[in-house]
Write a structure and sequence with these properties.
Elements: H1 2-11, E1 30-41, E2 44-58, E3 61-67, E4 79-85, E5 88-89, E6 104-110, E7 115-122, E8 140-150, E9 155-166, E10 173-174, E11 177-187, E12 192-205, E13 208-209, E14 212-213, E15 219-230, E16 235-243, H2 247-250, E17 256-265
Antiparallel strand pairs: 1-2, 1-17, 2-3, 2-4, 3-6, 4-5, 6-7, 7-8, 8-9, 9-11, 10-13, 11-12, 12-15, 13-14, 15-16, 16-17
């Protein structure tokens, strides 16, 4: 089990923290979201909770705080609850998930032209039980440019181009630097909005340990599908599933994440 988790830690990262790829809410409006994620890869699985909130300070400017698991894929969920391998629960500090995953803060500025500028900052702290140097939290910056447009009255496109730049953690390890490309298409059917999207992480600079190369660059592809359900003007829910593609990035077996969230607008 330790070997499996060590490989997962060394091969995977998550640079996708931005709230979404679509225009922000109007000034004075906000949203809070909580949910759960189930992750599985071969005989390894985990369950975690996530939470995030955003608020539009003025027209065009949004700030957000996110606990949605900006770390190794198997720790998805800002607050991991369980981890198991082949039906056996985690019971060792070397392989247990942390009590909470590293949070992130985000700022987005949206222009009337449909272009947005974003900056996500992953904070370098997390809960206990992280002994692998590749698993400890890094201070990481992800600047991004977004673009969104309505293709038809029902069909809306959102996209993002980003650069993931993690610094060395306390053990002098830094994951690879990545170019991120993301796209999502939503189709509104009234109270139900199905969506399909894909995120691609292209490794540009090798991971390092104490300033020296610590591996090769890798590319990960994360397609996903789901649906958003509008309950009323205040409440909404969404469900979705993503699939990790890329043996060098995710490992030999494909990881699958299933998530569900409840959102409250205010």
């Amino acid at each position: 089990m330790k070997k499996v988790l060590a490989v997962a830690l060394l091969c995977t990262a998550s640079a996708f923290a931005t709230w979404d790829y679509f225009p922000i809410k109007e000034a004075g409006k906000g949203e809070a979201k909580v949910g759960a994620q189930y992750w599985m890869q071969d005989k390894l699985s985990s369950i975690g909770l996530n939470a995030k909130a955003r608020f539009s300070v003025i027209d065009g400017l949004e700030i957000a705080a996110l606990f949605n698991g900006g770390g190794p894929e198997y720790l998805q969920g800002g607050f991991p609850l369980t981890a198991s391998y082949d039906g056996n629960s985690c019971d060792d500090d070397d392989v247990c998930p942390p009590t909470f995953n590293s949070p992130a803060i985000s700022v987005r500025y949206w222009l009337p032209s449909g272009i947005g500028i974003a900056l996500d900052v992953a904070l370098p702290f997390q809960g206990k039980n992280v002994e692998n140097v590749a698993g400890k939290a890094n201070l990481a910056f992800t600047p991004a440019v977004q673009y969104s447009t309505k293709l038809t009255e029902e069909l809306e496109l959102g996209s993002q181009l980003s650069f993931y730049f993690p610094l060395e953690n306390g053990d002098k390890y830094a994951p690879q630097k990545e170019l991120g490309i993301g796209i999502e298409v939503d189709y509104s059917l009234g109270s139900i909005t199905p969506y399909v999207g894909v995120d691609v992480a292209l490794g540009l600079m090798k991971p390092t340990y104490d300033g020296n190369d610590a591996g090769e660059t890798a590319t990960g592809i994360l397609p996903g599908v789901g649906a958003i359900f509008k309950i009323n003007d205040m409440l909404a829910a969404d469900v979705g599933v993503t699939f990790g593609i890329g043996e060098d990035y995710y490992g030999e077996e494909m990881p699958i994440t299933i998530g569900a969230n409840i959102a409250v607008s205010f």
